[in-house]
Design a protein that fits this description.
single chain; Beta Polymerase, domain 2; 5 helices; 6 strands; globular
Amino acid sequence: MTATERSLELAVAAAKAAADKLAESIQGIDVSAQLALTDVFVIVVAASERQIGAIVDAIEDDLRDLGAKPIRREGDRDARWVLIDFGDIVVHVQHEEEAAFYELERLWRDCPVVDLGVPLHPAESASAADD
């Protein structure tokens, strides 16, 4: 089983919203063969709690424009890890320290990586463009 077109559309939109807020890294993982609950994990890493809040807001706004509303959100805007469940996709927005500790991409390494159409490290790409 592979992720649906709708799941991929939402994952790409979430990734672009995170990239617009200069996330440290963004990765998509197709978990549809492993989990019946969702198709794609979008893992976003941010440098600060404030940036996590900005990324969460941007993702929710952009996905709402596509008709997707969060089913559940765990963690709050001041937290260091916010999980947003949209049903088709689950977005994890983590502080860089939590991302390094939990290594979600390592836990799901047997699942295919999803091309989200954004650089893996958009913050580095943005700073390189400024040079």
